[in-house]
Amino acid sequence: MAWGKGGSLRSCDALLKRVEDNDLRLTELVILPMKTFGAADAERLSAAIESGANTHLCSISASGHHLPPDSLRRFGAALSAQAKRAMQSGGEMGGIESLAIGSKDMGDEGIVALCEGLAESNGGLLEHVDFGWKNIGSKSLGAIGKTFASSKHLKHIDLSRNGDIGDEGMASVAKAAKENARDCGVAFPSLEKLVLAECNIGPAGMESLAELLSGPDNNRSKPIALGLGSNPIGADGCNSLAKLCAVPGKGSMISHLQISQSSIGDDGVGLLSKAALANPCTGLSVLDLSENSITKDGAKSLADSLAGSLPDLVELKVAKNDLGGEGVSSIMEVLASEGDGGRGVSTGKNATLQNLDLSHTKCEISGAKAVLTSRSIKTVRLFDNRLGSDGFRAIAPLLQGGHPSIENLDLGGNNADEDAVVALLNSIADKQDGQADSTLLVLEIGGNKFGDTAMEALTELKRVWPRLDVAHDKPVQQGAEGGLDQ
Q1: Using H for helix, E for strand and C for coil, what is the string for the chain?
Q2: Pairing between strand 254-258 and 484-485?
């Protein structure tokens, strides 16, 4: 890898010469924003790729550099020529597989020009494309759909932070992709990850997205990780999401769904849960519903589908939703717990969920206690839940001698006093004869009072459980401020 920070002043000459000389050690080219990379430099890079002079480079990152449309079109054509040469070699030759290029001023004109150069080869050999924060809209999305719809290489495309995409842009890419998918059966047949965070996509745009990804017969063969955070999707947009996550007889086309800050509320969760109950979301392993104005009612709807309709779910994030103790307890009631020995299927409970983020959910003491009865969860975040000193004392007995399943426990930011912190640490250190070994490996308690007495308790804890890492505030000396330590 070459980072492009050496050489004469800000020039890219030394880097480009290595590309032209086909330096076998240079497989990833990163041109940092502080370097000067303009039209003449782009021409040298394009020429080396088009001519076949370079056969080792597989990744180019040149984000933050403004290039004129003609340079981008020329660069796209060079990638097409490289792809043609690779095809003629029967796969013996490779080429550029990962690309991030252009600045936030690239706009539709730049993306359209690049795609025009790539059109002949359906996007060249590119597997990973980063068009994030390029100030693009519907024209760019149409060009992307036209150029890449039939690509058998493209696996990951990032379109995040382009607020002008909106519903019109999603309609544009869906229409262009449908017209240009040719014999693929489904647009973007090799796609594995699509990032559309902060793209101003509403319910109408979600309908276009569902049409784009599902294809005419719901025949997509590869599941997709879909990032949709910070879009005005709303509850109505969840109807389209359900078409992707709860396909009758097939399960979920989506493996990872990130939909934080999308205003779906309790109604949206209810729609998704109802769809899952009718058609289980088999294959959906990660679900992020953080910061969506979900309350205890939405948590109950989610719990209804957790037991049998999300059979492959491993990670759930519901942070920054006011679930309260009742909502958190509703979720925990359908997870395998101490009473059923972790046997999810035989007891009608979920035993697949391993990572749970309940940060800032106002879980209350009752919710925290419910969480710690779990025997299937491995990572739990209870950060910033205002548990306070009473909360730490209440959960301390549930951590006596450690925990039989939780490996990473975050109790940070709960403003417990030092005596309560000491009580918690002492309980974890209190291993009884015959008690099973604790699985706890990481304990985060920063944001709670930590002084010399707590340090003494931690020393004893480390003697009992030497493998346990504890992140805590630095002991506060009189007249000094604390900080995080380990």
Answers
A1: CECCCCCCCCCCHHHHHHHHCCCCCCCEEECCCCCCCCHHHHHHHHHHHHHCCCCCCCEEEEECCCCCHHHHHHHHHHHHHHHHHHHHCCCCCCCCCEEEEECCCCHHHHHHHHHHHHHHHCCCCCCEEECCCCCCCHHHHHHHHHHHCCCCCCCEEECCCCCCCHHHHHHHHHHHHHHHCHHHCCCCCCCCEEECCCCCCCHHHHHHHHHHHHCCCCCCCCCEEEECCCCCCHHHHHHHHHHHHCECCCECCEEEEECCCCCCHHHHHHHHHHHHHHCCCCCCCEEECCCCCCCHHHHHHHHHHHCCCCCCCCEEECCCCCCHHHHHHHHHHCECEHHHCCCHHHHCCECCCCEEECCCCCCHHHHHHHHCCECCCCEEECCCCCCHHHHHHHHHHHHCCCCCCCCEEECCCCCCCHHHHHHHHHHHHCCCCCCCCCCCCEEECCCCCCCHHHHHHHHHHHHHCCCCEEEEECCCCCCCCCCEEC
A2: unpaired
The whole-model pTM stands at: 0.94
Q: Which two tokens stand for residue 319?
A: 């942070």
Residues 6+ apart with CB under 8 A from 434: none
Name residue 421's amino acid: V
Q: Which residues contact 26 (CB under 8 A, 6 or more apart)?
A: 1, 2, 18, 19, 56, 57
Structure tokens at 335: 């997870």
- Do β-strands 193-195 and 156-158 pair in parallel, antiparallel, or remain unpaired? parallel
Least confident of 209-218, 330-339, 435-444: 330-339
| Residue 159: alpha-carbon gap to chain centroid | 14
Angle between helices 418-429 and 452-464 (to 10 degrees): 10
- List pLDDT tens digits, range 277-332: 999 999 999 999 999 999 999 999 999 999 899 999 999 999 999 999 999 999 99
Beta strand pairing status for 469-473 and 484-485?
antiparallel
Amino acid at 73: R
* pLDDT score of 6: 45
Q: How far apart are CA 115 and CA 209, in angstroms?
A: 21
Give the tens place of pLDDT for each residue, 147-191.
999 999 999 999 999 999 999 999 999 999 999 987 778 999 999
First-to-last alpha carbon distance for the chain, in angstroms, is: 33
Asked if 366 and 329 touch (Cβ cutoff 8 Å), the reply is: yes
Residue found under tokens 């990780």 = 225
Return all residues near 399 (Cβ < 8 A) that are at least 6 apart. 372, 424, 427, 428, 440
87-122 pLDDT, tens digit each: 998 877 889 999 999 999 999 999 999 999 999 999
What's the one-letter identity of residue 276? A
